[in-house]
User: Which sequence fits this backbone?
């Protein structure tokens, strides 16, 4: 393990890798699809309900060169004896866009028919990554699932507002909600900000890290139904399939 203060990848050359594995996608409109997950280490935020703190702090990561990582991703996507291949790659963390240069290079090394989802926290300027993979962004081959941090996270949404204006139709926006105040906050953001994203996800916070009680999914569903809100209720499918596990899912 490396000391937190020393943690920084060589941009465009390596990853700080927390986990690399195959699972089913538990979130977003791609839910249920077999997916290769690349969980990158370190984050710019510290959300109270973070369920991936092992990828945020503690120094549990390995440095992996971009070429090596791309090969490992391809091997996982193709499997050993399977006739088909996985075509969905999910870059998550931590905050993956802190390693955007390396992600862009890996994407260029991987087959062009792969679809890459970038799960970002909303507080990194997405324009910088857009500029690294402009054609893949235009075609939808690289898509964001972007959080907007609500007050219950303990974080303050700031860059997210500008980022929302930069999203494309194929990108998705996610609000993790801890309580009614977060729900009202999310509605307020959507009423004020112009975004082209066609998929808005409302996800109830679940107990993790510093949060002992999450938001009841039935309660959130009732609020959405009562107000006829054009958003998608999102439960984390992987946690329903593998309760109590926090790695490799
Ligand atoms: S942005 Fe994501 S990874 Fe970072 S602390 Fe928040 S929930 Fe955890």
Assistant:
């Amino acid at each position: 393990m490396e000391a937190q203060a020393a943690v920084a990848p060589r941009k465009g050359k390596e990853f700080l890798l927390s986990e690399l594995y195959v699972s089913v996608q538990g979130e977003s409109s791609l839910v249920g699809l077999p997916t290769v997950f690349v969980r990158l280490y370190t984050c710019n935020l510290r959300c109270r309900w973070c369920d991936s703190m092992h990828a945020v702090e503690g120094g549990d990561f390995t440095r992996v060169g971009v070429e090596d990582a791309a090969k490992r991703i391809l091997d996982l996507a193709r499997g050993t004896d399977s006739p088909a291949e996985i075509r969905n790659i999910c870059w998550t963390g931590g905050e993956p866009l802190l390693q955007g240069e390396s992600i862009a290079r890996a994407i260029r090394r991987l087959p062009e028919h792969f679809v890459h989802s970038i799960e970002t926290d909303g507080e990194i300027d997405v324009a910088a990554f857009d500029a690294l993979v402009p054609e893949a962004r235009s075609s939808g081959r690289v898509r964001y699932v972007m959080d907007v941090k609500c007050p219950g996270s303990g974080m303050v949404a700031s860059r997210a507002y500008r980022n929302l204006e930069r999203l494309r139709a194929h990108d998705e926006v996610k609000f993790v909600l801890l309580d009614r105040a977060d729900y009202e906050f999310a509605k307020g953001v959507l009423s004020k900000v112009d975004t082209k994203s066609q998929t808005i996800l409302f996800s109830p916070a679940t107990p993790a890290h510093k949060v002992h009680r999450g938001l009841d999914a039935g309660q959130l569903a009732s609020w959405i139904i009562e107000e006829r809100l054009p958003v998608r209720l999102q439960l984390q499918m992987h946690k329903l399939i593998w309760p109590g596990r926090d790695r490799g899912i």
Q: What stands out?
A: The mean pLDDT is 96. The radius of gyration is 17 Å. Helices lie at 66-78, 100-109, 126-132, 134-139, 159-166, 180-192, 217-226, 237-241. The chain is about 30% helix and 20% strand.
